[in-house]
Amino acid sequence: MPPRLQSILPALYLLGVLTLLLCPSGLCAHSLSSFCITIQDCRMPPRIAHGSHHDISSFLSFTTVMHYECDEGYVLVGHPQITCRSSQWSSPAPQCKALCLKPKVENGNLSADKDLFIESENVTIQCDSGYGVVNSQNITCSENRTWYPEVPKCEWEVHNGCEQVVEGSKLMQCLPNPADVKMALEVYKLSLEIKRLKQE
Ligand SMILES: *[C@@H]1O[C@H](CO)[C@@H](O)[C@H](O)[C@H]1NC(C)=O
Ligand SMILES: *[C@@H]1O[C@H](CO)[C@@H](O)[C@H](O)[C@H]1NC(C)=O
Ligand SMILES: *[C@@H]1O[C@H](CO)[C@@H](O)[C@H](O)[C@H]1NC(C)=O
Ligand SMILES: *[C@@H]1O[C@H](CO)[C@@H](O)[C@H](O)[C@H]1NC(C)=O
């Protein structure tokens, strides 16, 4: 026998006794059917996305208690249990919200520094100085546990002023790594040498 039926049988039995005691003429047929309908209400616990529920009502209990769990990668928001009272659930079912891993962005940082983000949370990517964001700067943790739109990249930006590198002033802004800076400095020194030689 299914467990639900087991816990409902005593109720029906009690109802039968009450019906006999209170309604000898059988006038209670209508209230009996509405009682059955109200039992049905709580036998249909709300379904939730990315999670499941199971009945944890105690044996022979008149109240139905449902326990909700989330699929892996989802976190439960709200109360994990709902109880049927007066043919109504005590509260709305909880929700299972997606968790997104911290987006990996090289040469940039995030507006919030943490390892996990929850569905619908937004993150703004800030690229390091000299790097420009490719794709959307703002991303949202979506229901399918991925970032939407896709995680942007921070790419080295070639500024318009880069020809001036030999003049020294925009050196740091234009070159991505110390080796390049060193080389640029060499070029700069060389250009000064050439200038000096020309003047002589
Ligand atoms: C994230 O951004 C969207 C639109 O840009 C907005 O509707 C939503 O409320 C934001 N989420 C949070 C948690 O602030
Ligand atoms: C991200 O980097 C910027 C400058 O590069 C800095 O001002 C900001 O504090 C950093 N944010 C975080 C969350 O580390
Ligand atoms: C990204 O979000 C921040 C903070 O919500 C906002 O100030 C900025 O304008 C957004 N950037 C873009 C490109 O939508
Ligand atoms: C995840 O959801 C977004 C919308 O929120 C959708 O554009 C994207 O294609 C989905 N990704 C996958 C892998 O299903």
UniProtKB/TrEMBL annotation:
Domain Sushi: 40-98, 99-156
Keywords from the UniProt entry: Disulfide bond, Repeat, Signal, Sushi
PANTHER family named among the record's database cross-references: PROTEIN CBR-CLEC-78 (PTHR45656:SF4)
This protein's name: Sushi domain-containing protein
Xref: CDD domains: CCP
UniProt entry tagged with the keyword Membrane: no
InterPro entries (alphabetical): C4bp_oligo, SEZ6_CSMD_C4BPB_Regulators, Sushi/SCR/CCP_sf, Sushi_SCR_CCP_dom
Pfam family, one: C4bp_oligo
Keyword Aminoacyl-tRNA synthetase included in the entry's annotation: no
Annotated S-S bridges: C127-C154
Signal peptide: 1-29
SUPFAM superfamilies linked to this entry: Complement control module/SCR domain (SSF57535)
